[in-house]
Amino acid sequence: EEDAEIIVKIFAEFSVASETHKAIQALNGRWFAGRKVVAEVYDQERFDNSDLSA
């Protein structure tokens, strides 16, 4: 429907944990294209199993 909420998910994988936390700090709460960004760590097992539904 035209008025339905659109959810966009973007995943990034980092080789060093500290890079992950820096990215979250830099992106979380910012605005992009009129929408607020929510940056958080995703469950690694779900990601590895291509379960991107959470």
From TrEMBL:
UniProt organism field: Sus scrofa (Pig)
Official protein name in the record: Fuse-binding protein-interacting repressor SIAHBP1
InterPro entries, per database record: Nucleotide-bd_a/b_plait_sf, PUF60_regulator, RBD_domain_sf
Cross-referenced PANTHER family: POLY(U)-BINDING-SPLICING FACTOR PUF60 (PTHR47330:SF1), POLY(U)-BINDING-SPLICING FACTOR PUF60-B-RELATED (PTHR47330)
GO molecular function: nucleic acid binding
